[in-house]
């Protein structure tokens, strides 16, 4: 019986080394690409937020005055909308000022806080100065605010009388129906504000009653 002829075999011995070499070359080419890192996405720096906007508002209790509950509520509400301010305290008065001897004269003396009827309506009002929280302790910029009393015992939201003025050597006072702002108690120079019923606000007036009320003095004087 005749043996059928055998089929030709594939030359595995010759092909296999070529396949191995081709695979090694492909791996060598792919390796650097695999090692490359994808560039990180560009990050955008956040916009800086003012420190005064991130800090909690000051409180009426921070001033150390013997404020009544309705007065505290009015001051806290005022500060809630103005976190850049804080109540001025006795310690904001510059050391060595002539008002340092006012304590024995007045009994209780606070340079930046005073009560009285500032608009001649028979109700108790109060005037309080505030200081920028980012200003220098010995030379801060002060703002004077009036809180008018209401028949129910509460107070108005507070209105600015003067903004960012120099008051480190001065004080606030009430002279009958006038609010008196004295920038420096060592000098005989004050600014007076009286209530104008027609305008429903305090207006700056001169000492000479014959003269017409002048405009409000500029800030930072």
Radius of gyration: 39 Å
From N to C, what is the helix and strand string?
Answer: HHHEHEEEEEEEE
Estimate what percentage of residues fall within beta strands: 15-25%
Count of helical stretches: 4
Molecular structure report:
The protein is α+β, with helices and mostly antiparallel strands and 221 residues long. It contains four helices and nine strands. The strands form two sheets. Strands 1, 2, 3, 4 and 5 form a five-stranded antiparallel beta sheet that branches. A four-stranded antiparallel beta sheet has the order 6-7-8-9, with no helix packed on it. A hairpin with an 8-residue loop joins β7 (178-182) and β8. It is globular, with a radius of gyration of 39 Å. 25% of the residues are buried. Residues 10-14, 38-44 and 210-214 have low confidence and may be disordered.
